[in-house]
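LAB NOTEBOOK - FOLDING QUEUE
OPERATOR: T.R.
BATCH SIZE: 2
PURPOSE: Compare the predicted C-alpha cell outputs for two unrelated chains run back to back under identical settings.
PRIORITY: normal
REVIEWER: second-year student, initials M.K.

ITEM 1
FIELD SEQUENCE / FIELD STRUCTURE:
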Amino acid sequence: MTDTSSDLQKYGVPFYGAGWAPYNHIKSKLASQEKIEEDKKEEKDPTPSNDDEITTPLNYVVLAGGGGEGRSGIPNAIVVSHVNFTSNSLSDQPVVKHETGSDLPYRMTVHPHGDGIICAFQQSCRLFEWKESEGNEVHKLGVKVSEKVLIQLEDVGQQLALTFNSEGSVLAVGGEDGSLRVFKWPSMKIVLNEAQAHSSVKNLDFSCDGKFLVSLGSGLCRIWDVTSSKVVASLAKGNDEVFAFCRFSQINDKNPHLYIAAVTDYGGSILTYNTTTWKRIRTSRVVREAISAFNVSSDGKFLAVGTVGGDLFIINSANMRVQMMVKKAHLGLVTALTFSPDSRALVSASLDSSARLTLIKDKTSS
C-alpha cells in the first residue's frame, strides 16, 4: 500500500541521526530547575507563574548532521522540529538550530528520561542538554552544550553507534576502530571495555529489559550479558549477507525477537532470531534495494526500513509483509528512522537535508 499521509520539510542540514524528544521528562526536569532558581530568589521579585504555558503535551523530534569540516557553507547542527499530529506536519522552520561549528555530529542518541542528547563527533562525544528558549514563543524547547564533559569519550576517535538502555541507566558506545564501551549513567563508570569487539562497530541495541546488548559488525553479531560483560552468543552472516543494523523487539512478552537488517545480492532482508536459543528462525527478503536505515516501533508491531534510493517501508512484524510504502520519500538515501513513543508515527531523515513525518495507517489499538 502506497502512503500519502506524510509531510516533508527541508532544514538545510544533511541528516545522519534522528530521535524523539521525551517531552514529558524534559518538561519535568526544566520545571524542577526553574523551581530551584525561583527558590534562590527568595521571593524578591514575584512574577506570575507560567506553568499553564507548558501543560499542553508537545511533540518534538531532534535531528543531527551537517556538511562536515569543509567550506561548503552547509552548517553542522542539531535541529529540533515541532511535530503537529493534528495537521500531520513538522514545523516548516526548526524550533532551534544549534550549530556545532566545524564539528559534524555524525551519530546521536537521545536520553530516554530527558538528560539530553549525546553526539559523536570525529574525535570525541559531547553531551547537549535541553533548555527553555528565550522569549514568549509557542515552541519553548532549546538545546545547549552541557557543562558536563564526557572525559571517558574524549579523543577516542569516531564512534559509529550510541545507545542508552530503556531506563537511561546504561550507555553503550561503539567505535569505528572496533572498540565497545559500556558505562553506567550518569556516573560514566565503565562496566565493559572491549578494544576489539569487531573490526568496526556498526550498530548497538539493548534488549527491553536491559539484560542484553547486541553489537554488530559487517559479518558478525555479538550478544553481551550486560551484568557479566561476557559474550553469550555470536551470530554469523550467511554467504551473501552483510549485516547492517540490529534491533531487539521491544515487546515485553514471552517471545521477544532480535532483528538484523542485512544487505544481500538480491536487496535487503530482515533476519529474525530467537532470544533464548539465539537461533535464526526466519529470513525475510523485504526490499529490492540495499537497506540504509532500520528501526522497530516501541510496541514491536512495526519495522521501518529506509533504502539507498530514498524509499520508505513500514513492515508488519507479525507476517513480515509491507504494510505501507512511500516511494521516493527522500531524494537522497534514508539515514535515520525513529518511531514516536506511541508507535503511531515515524520520522525519517536523509542526506538530502529533509525530514519526513509519516502516520502509520491501519494501526490496531491495543
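ITEM 2
FIELD SEQUENCE / FIELD STRUCTURE:
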Amino acid sequence: MAVSPANSLSPFFRDLAKKQVGEKHDHVGAHLISFKRWLASSPHLKLPQNDVFLLSFLRYAHYEHALAQRRIDNFCTLRCSDKLISQWYDYPSVEDPLLDTYLNAGIFIPLGFLESGLYVILVRMASWSPTEIGQVTMRTLNNMNFERLLFDQRCQIGGFALIIDMAHTSLENARQWGDIKYAKSAFKLMQEASPGRVKHLVFYKESKIFDFAFKLSELWMSDKMRSRVIRVKDDIQKAFKKIPGLKEVLPEEYEGKNGTLASCIARCSREVKEFYSKGYPLKDIQVDEDKRPASARNYIKEYKEFDASMMGTSGTFIKIDPGD
C-alpha cells in the first residue's frame, strides 16, 4: 500500500482531522484505494490520481463515499461541461502580464492559518476594475488562486473563512459582482462541487447597494451556508469576536497584526507563481458525457431562476435585516 499523505500531518492537524471530519488516521490509505477503484469504474471521468487532491473530497464528505463521489463528479462536470463555468478554468501561464495585474490588485488574498486551523481569505471587491480585468477573467484568476489551496491538507481539515470587504464598492462593481448569471453559477460551484469547506462568510462594510445583492444571493444559499454568514457592517471587532484569532492574520489596514496589505499581496503573488511554476495539476480533467452511466446523472441540484417580482414593485427599496 502506498504511503498515506496523512502521515505528513503534524500531531495538531491529525487530531483536528479526527475532530472535524471523522478521520481515522490508519484508515486513510484504504479509503483512497476504494475511492480510486470507484473512479476507475467511472467511464465518463478522467482526472489526475493525486492522493492529496482526492483526499479533499473524502474529507469534505467526512469519508461518506457516496457524497465524495457525487461531489468530485460535480466538480469535474461543472469544470468541463457547463458552458459558463468551464470558462473559469482556462488558466493563463505564470508569465502572462494579466496575472500580474490581477495579483497586484489584491482582489483575492489568502492570508494564513489561525491557531484553530481555520484558513482566512480576504476578498476586496472594490479592488477589481472591470475595465482592466473582465468578469470571466476575474473569476478565472480567483479560481486559479484558490485551487492551489486544495492541495494543502491543512486547509482541507481546518476549512476556510472568507472576509468580504465591500468598502468603496462602486455601482458598477456591485452590478458586475451581482450579475445574476454569474452569481448563480458561482454559488452552484461552491455549494455543489468545490471540496473547500467554507465555515464562515463575513461581510464587512456593506453598502445599501449590496442589500439587493445579498437578498438575491439568499435565493441560492443553502441553509448551511446561510447559517455561516456573519454581517458586521463597519465594525470589524464583531468579526474578531465571532472568529477568535482573526486579528492575527488580517493586515494592519483591517486592525490586524499580519503586516501591511501590500506585504500580504506580495506574499500571495509569490505563492501563486511558485505553485504554478511547477505545472497545472488539474489541467487534464476531462468528462465524456456520452459515457456517463445512468447512475451518475442528476447529481447537481437545480438552482432557482431569478423572479424579478421577489424584489417588489419597481422603485421600491427592500431593506434586509443585517441579522447581527
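REVIEWER COMMENT (ITEM 2): Confidence is low (pLDDT under 50) at residues 308-324.
FOLLOW-UP: none requested
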